[in-house]
Design goal:
With about 40 residues, this protein is an alpha+beta fold. It has one domain. Helices cover about 25% and strands about 20% of the residues. It contains one helix and two strands. The protein has a two-stranded parallel sheet with strand order 1-2. It is elongated, with a radius of gyration of 13 Å. The termini are far apart.
Length: about 40
């Protein structure tokens, strides 16, 4: 299993596109809003 982080970005979306061709199992990691962790934005 492959995890693609930043799957909606420029490079990540190309990786996802290529992984779909040979039907490779993968997970796409994205975030839809800014994250705040312990005061770090």
């Amino acid at each position: 299993m492959i995890l693609v982080t930043g799957a909606t970005g420029t490079a990540g979306s190309q990786v996802v596109h290529e992984l779909l061709k040979p039907d490779v199992p993968f997970r796409a990691g994205i975030h839809s809003r800014p994250l705040e962790l312990n005061g770090i934005v």
